[in-house]
Amino acid sequence: MPRLLLAPVLLALTMSLPSPVLAGAAETSVPLSVGGCAPDYVRPDFRALERGLALARLKWATAKVKNYRYDFAQIAAPVAFPTARVTVKAGLVQGVGLAPGEQGEIGGQARATVEARFAAIAETLRLQRGQKCPAVEVAYDPTDGHPTRLYSGSRAANIADGWGEWRVTNFTRL
Length: 174
Description:
Elements: H1 2-16, H2 19-27, H3 46-63, E1 68-76, E2 79-80, E3 84-89, E4 92-98, H4 114-129, E5 134-140, E6 147-154, E7 164-173
Antiparallel strand pairs: 1-2, 1-3, 1-7, 3-4, 5-6, 6-7
Keywords: Signal
Pfam families: DUF6174
InterPro entries: DUF6174
């Protein structure tokens, strides 16, 4: 019932304001940027990101890790999926389940080896390179090179969603 009264009350309050107050409100509005990047936008250095990927792949190949387990957290804005536990043996995914304490439906990107994560990063870099205001951040483990984070989105002005991020944590060799 209170919602029904809100519109007439707001209308009455607006009508009671003097014209100069209403006119002044338009002068203080924030202009929207049309078609551009966010004001603080800095384009990613795709060459540096590709060099980082190549170095991480080299470290991973050198480490020769074939049996491991990790937790995978994924956000596909505005949806945050529960953290999944991924087990890989002999270089193949053997199991994907909810991490301890999690509940819900596991995201579609959870079932992947480290090699598949590298491929996803390479594809993201390829696709984002051609975008107008791309945002890409990647992190790798300094020891064996496995990916620990991928963030990808758009820094176009006035965009509130359209980004995704995943993180690899609790990486354990088996």
